[in-house]
Design a protein that fits this description.
By secondary structure, the protein is mostly beta strands. Helix content is about 5%, strand content about 20%. The chain has one helix and four strands. The relative contact order is 0.24.
């Protein structure tokens, strides 16, 4: 098990984009309607109201199923969980040669409809950083340590 030192936003956002054959997410609850305080005016255009950013969940957990590309047998499941403000990644992966080392990263989309997996897009990179080792800078949000 490893703790991944990456931003909570990047890891949790990327989770939804991590792998093929994902289970659908639970529908989000709608925010209750609010009435402006007495004496205050509601914005004429709701789009003009300032946006507020939701606080990240401190106990967020998500999982993804990994599907093989055409001609490969590697598959498994991965779980992402926030532990002490860091994202803890665990999983079970089969089909890798014993004793080998393999890259592990998150892609932009959870779409693996293309036989070669190219429909998953590039590596998740919201900060437009160079690709690199997660233990050093620079690296982008989709970089993870290699699987050994």
């Amino acid at each position: 098990m490893r703790l991944i030192h990456t931003s909570l936003f990047a890891a949790i956002a990327a989770l939804g984009l991590a792998a093929c054959n994902q289970q659908p997410a639970a529908p989000e609850a709608e925010a209750p309607a609010t009435t402006p305080a007495e004496g205050s005016a509601a914005p004429a255009d709701p789009a003009a109201a300032p946006a507020t950013e939701a606080a990240p969940a401190t106990d967020a957990t998500a999982s993804a199923e990994l599907a093989p590309t055409q001609g490969n047998e590697t598959k498994g499941s991965v779980t992402f969980k926030v532990v002490d403000g860091k994202v803890h990644v665990t999983g079970q992966i089969t089909g890798l040669k014993p004793g080998s080392e393999h890259g592990f990263h998150i892609h932009e989309k959870g779409d693996c409809s293309a036989p070669d997996g190219m429909s998953a897009g590039g590596h998740f990179n919201p900060g437009k950083q160079d690709h690199g080792n997660v233990s050093a800078d620079p690296h982008h949000g989709g970089d993870m340590p290699n699987i050994k």
